Batch of 2 targets.
Target 1
Amino acid sequence: MASLTDIRSALKATVKSEIPELNVYSEVSDVQQVPAVVVMPAGTSLSGMACDFNGAMGRGMDVWTLDLYVLVARTDGSLAQRSLDQYVTGSGPKSLRQIIYQNPALGLDDGTDAHAEGIREYGGSFMTAGIQHVGAVVRLTVRTPN
């Protein structure tokens, strides 16, 4: 079974191998360079939990609901939008959805399976380290067996 730390590390390695210029962080407050992705347990999910410990057969797997906060610099509105679009679109060389789809195990060999559910808060405004950002949230579900 992969821990939350294992999943974050595996996501970082998977994303960085496909999009080397995309910085991956564990906390929004850690963001120092954009473009960036911040991997956080979801505040709310369909089940109302960031992790369901009773995924299958009463403790057969953990089901994590994670939010990937995708942040780009807000220097020029149209440039920021084009930059953001390439990460949150359904396919393409910089599409997070496509990268997860092509690498559902995230490099873990324990039966972990990840998939992107969709995006929300597109165009959301974030502020960290005194740099304005624009972004979106990609919802990810990760199932990991016990």
Target 2
Amino acid sequence: MKRVALGIIERKVLDKKEYLLVSATKKSGKYTGFYYPPGGHMKNGENECETIVREIREELGCEVEIIKKITESLGDTKNQFTYWWLCKIIKGKLRIKKEEIINAKWFSKKEIIDEEKIWPATKKVFINYIFKKNI
């Protein structure tokens, strides 16, 4: 089973939280072009936090601090298990690696709930863990 670690990054703008989601260049069948938190596949010998820090540095050019684990779940694709972590940017500005990421965008709670092009597992984690518990 493939293991994926994702970092949910939030910021406050005018006292409202926004969350950074990305859309990959990789073809993903019916989910091609859909948004999800940044992160990626875990390499052999790598733990969840190391994966998130490495992937975000490689794909977005910034450093993150891992805050806490939110949950684990099956992914939206076959044979995928996903680890979800809350993170914050501690250094650098977003610089998208165009070979891997089409777009990176900050979403409000309403946009995540209403947007159709959000991976189903992502929407479920946000609704059940982020918005419900106000992490």
